[in-house]
Every structure is written in C-alpha cells, then in structure tokens.
Design a protein that fits this description.
This protein is mostly helical and 222 residues long. It contains 8 helices and no strands. It is 81% helix and 0% strand. Helix 1 runs antiparallel to helix 2, helix 3 runs antiparallel to helix 4 and helix 7 packs antiparallel against helix 8.
Length: 222
Amino acid sequence: MTERFNFGRKYDFHEIVADGVVHGIGLVFALVGVTALIFYATISASLGEIAAAWIYGLGLVLCLSISFTYNIWPVSRAKWVLRRFDHSAIFVLIAATYTPFLERGIHDPMILFMLVAIWLTAIVGILLKCFFPGRYDRLAILLYLAMGWSGVIVAVPISQYLPAITVWLIVAGGIIYSLGVIFHVWERLRFQNAIWHAFVVAASAVHYGAVITCFSLSNTTL
C-alpha cells in the first residue's frame, strides 16, 4: 500500500485473532444486553426514555460491529473506507452513551444544551474523519477525550436526576476508557490493539451498567 493508505504498524496473525476474539465477546454481550435494555424500557419507561434506549443501543452495537469488521479486514482500499466509519462510530458511541443520562434532565436548559452540543460535536468529528481520513488523528483522540469528559460541565445538575451508583459507574467507565487510550497510542506494544479494545469493551460494559441502573433505579424512585 502507498503512504496514503497508512494503517499504522502491521499486526501479525495472532494479534488479529486476539483482537477479533475481544470484539466478538463484546459484540455478543452488547447484542444480548441491548435487547434486554430495550425490552425493559419498552414495558416500563416513557417515550423519551425508550427513544434514548434505542439511540444508546444502536450506537453501541453499531460501533462494535464496525470496529470488528474494520480491524479484521485485510489491508486494502476497502479497509481505508472502513477506517472512516470505524473512527466516526466512536463519536456516535460517545454521544449515544450520553443520551440516556441527559434525557433524564432534558427539561433543564443547561442539560438540553449539553445534549445538543455533544451531538453537534459528534457530527463535526464524523465530518472530520470522513473528509480528512488519515489526518488529524491526534486531534481526534483529544476530541474523543474532551467529549467523554464534557459531562463534568453538567455533573451537578444531572446528578439530581440520576441514582448515585449511576454517576459512579459513568465516572468509572470514563476512567477505563481514558486508561485504554495509553495502549491505543502505544503502537510498538505487541497485542496493543487487542488490549485497547479490551479496555473499550470493559468501559462499555461499565457504562451499560450505568444505563441499566439509570432506568431501573430511577423508575423505582420517581
């Protein structure tokens, strides 16, 4: 491949298999978990909460599916196209994960502004990845982190609408994601990609727990 199609270092067969296994485990659990979440929301939540559950669920499954496809695909022009979708899907996942939590306090102008702002930022990030593939990757990582931790801006008002355990799980998931970035940029480390995606799957599982407690405990107390 030419310099234009730069995917970083080449991963050997065992690294690709390990990465595929990590993705496969994450995707299976995501499909089961999202199905359960949407079923629960459908029978016990409001229309707004049901919509938020669908947005989160689709965002999670979409991101893991695209990431799985991209990372096991052989180096080619098609992989270069998949790379755009893979990196764009991260923006979708971050915004989709925030949606169920922010929906809880959507009548608060500040929280509503946060919800709109995070989706607009996701759109900007997607456009950046689609129209400037292979460029500004470091900037994109900073944008991922900024989006992920932007919730601290509305931490006080949103905490009034969420159970304490939900808030702690959100923070824990954010820390796991952030620690995983170390391995994402540590390209010389063998199995680096599989380790990074293991952090992603673990953080996604913790955030799934946050969404579940957000729905179940909030509906119990409200």
